[in-house]
Amino acid sequence: MTSIEELTTLATFGSTWAVLAVGHNVADHVFGQSDHQAANKGAPTAEDVAAGVSPRRGWAACLAHVGQYHLVLAALLALVWMFIPLRLSMTGLAAGFAWSAVTHAVLDRRWPVRWLLQRTGSPAFAERRTAGLNGMYLADQALHSGALLVSALLITRL
After folding, report:
1. How many C-alpha atoms does 73 have within 13 Å on its Cβ side?
2. How far is 70 from 74, CA to CA, in rounded Å?
3. Which of 23, 74, 84, 112 has the fewest beta carbons closer than 10 A?
4. Could you report the per-residue pLDDT of 129-155, keeping only the tens digit for each?
5. How far apart are CA 158 and CA 93, in angstroms?
6. C-alpha atoms less than 13 angstroms from C-alpha of 39 in its C-beta half-sphere
7. 54, burial (CB in 10 Å: exposed 0-12, middle 13-18, buried 19+)
8. What is the pTM of this model?
């Protein structure tokens, strides 16, 4: 038999995951990123670095986006929490948001997504930009969703 404690945990996880999933789309595509941040958050290419560009280029735009993005997520989670009595702890929230921020920043530098696609048998997908599909973007979004699943688990269980 399932206890009320287990049901509360399941409801909190489901609600948290839903808020993070919706929040991701709202934050990544509407309120959590400027055109400047989107265009400049990626790491420079190896060729750019070889030509003298700092490998740190883009971090300011990336971190500004990550901060703005997480403010949107926090606002949406707070809004839901006002109406649904979620069992949230400061430890869980800190761990979940820290995991999300770190993974989001790393993925948005772009080279880790390309590296992963190239090493998992999908180098052509990494370069696809046809018929309305962009392989790097789709892989980036999928990886963000996976990271947010871990965030929801951390928020719920810690």
Report:
1. 28
2. 6
3. 84
4. 887 779 999 999 999 999 999 999 999
5. 8
6. 3
7. exposed
8. 0.92
3-state secondary structure of 128: coil
CA-CA distance, 108 to 101, in Å (whole number)? 10
Percent of the chain exceeding pLDDT 70 equals 99
Report the C-alpha gap between 154 and 149 in whole angstroms: 9
Give, in order, the Cα–Cα distances in Å from 59 to each of 49, 67, 92, 122: 14, 12, 27, 27
Rounded mean pLDDT of 70-87? Answer: 95
**DSSP secondary structure of 45-105:** PHHHHHTT--TTTTHHHHHHHHHHHHHHHHHHHHHHHHHS-----HHHHHHHHHHHHHHHH
Residue 130, pLDDT score: 86
Q: How many CB atoms lie within 10 A of CB 66?
A: 23
| Residue 32 exposed, middle or buried by CB count within 10 Å (0-12, 13-18, 19+) | buried
Q: State in Å, rounded, how far the first CA of the chain is from the last one.
A: 24
DSSP string, 98-126: HHHHHHHHHHHTSHHHHHHHHHTT-HHHH
E strand or H helix that includes residue 22: helix 4-26
